């Protein structure tokens, strides 16, 4: 008999141990002008909040892959909208950010102007961390082709590289009007285990049974809205529509394994595994 297992996650906090694959996207295989890129099987959308950000491939040798010049990267070209702001976001996988490189300057590419960079990590629309960097930026082309390393293992003395997010938002401030991003190093999570001692009251509004199941299951929720079932590597497998109360579903078409169910709850989402 087919046996599909759901294991209830006991916390919404990002206090967790996870198994992941580290990957560095250098954008060299991406298309000029593309508002998205694919790395390690995950599609990331480049979301422009202020200004227009996409893949830049018109100026060979102006990027930085972490050790040498390269040809493609994300930037806002000469868009004058201010303050420039964009996100790297995926809806099909949770991830962590290790580090990335940024060229930060005036529109004329002058590196000596003063500015700031605000780095924000979000999960399901909820801010998990935010920090503003105001010093330590590269001011010459002599080193790293003008790019500054943004290291989330030590950003303003804090380590944010272990925080699970689905969106990285970057916002320029001060006199910074141009941003180029290259060598994006991130971690693809293939499993999440949360601390069982951190159960929250918000879980009382949802239950899944039977668990484990051989296919049919009931989902009780306090709120209506869409729900999704994901594999452990973040692939969307099934869409469900939830109504307040008890909902019947069937996952007998899925192979044996552990899956993640995401449903709406108040202003954020509950993740149950």
TrEMBL record:
Q: What is this protein called?
A: T9SS type A sorting domain-containing protein
Q: Which residues form the signal peptide?
A: 1-20
Q: Which organism is it from?
A: Chryseobacterium endalhagicum
Q: Which UniProt keywords apply?
A: Signal
Any Pfam family the entry gives:
Por_Secre_tail
Q: Which InterPro entries match?
A: Secre_tail
Identify the residues that the record assigns to the Secretion system C-terminal sorting domain, covering every copy. 208-273
